[in-house]
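S1.2 Input.
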Amino acid sequence: MTPEQIIKKFFEEVRSGNNPDYATELMADKVIAHQVISEEDLTVLRTPKEYADHVKEMVEAYGDFSLEIQAFMAQGNKVYVRWKQVGTHVGVVDGYQPTNLPVIEIASAVYRIEDEKIAEYWIQIDRAGIEKQLNRNKIN
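S1.3 Output.
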C-alpha cells in the first residue's frame, strides 16, 4: 500500500472508531507521537493497542462521532490530514460530566510511513476550542 492508502485506511477503520483494533495492522510496534498541548511539545511512544484504547475512550466520551477529512496531502512517505470530528458529549471528558450536547474537534496531523506502517506522527488539536465547548455545555 502507498502512504496515502495506509492513512486513508487508518482514518476509515481506526481513527473513525469503526474498528480501533485494526491499528495493529497499520501502525508500527512503537510509534513516535509528537503532540502540542498548551503550546508545549510533548513526545510519547505509543503502541497500536494504546492508540486503539485511546480511540475507544473517544467513542465512550463522544458516542458514534462523525469524522470528515477536510484536507489530505501526501509527499513522499509523509501524509498530512486535517479533519473535523463531531460527536455528542455522552461520557466524562476531563472531569466534565456528560451533557448530550454536540462537541466539535478540529485537528491535523502529519503521519510518516515506514515499511508500510505508521511510524511517527505530529498532531495538533484545537484543545482550547474543545474546552470552551465543554464549559459552555456544562450544566450548572
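S1.4 Remarks. The first helix runs from residue 3 to 15.
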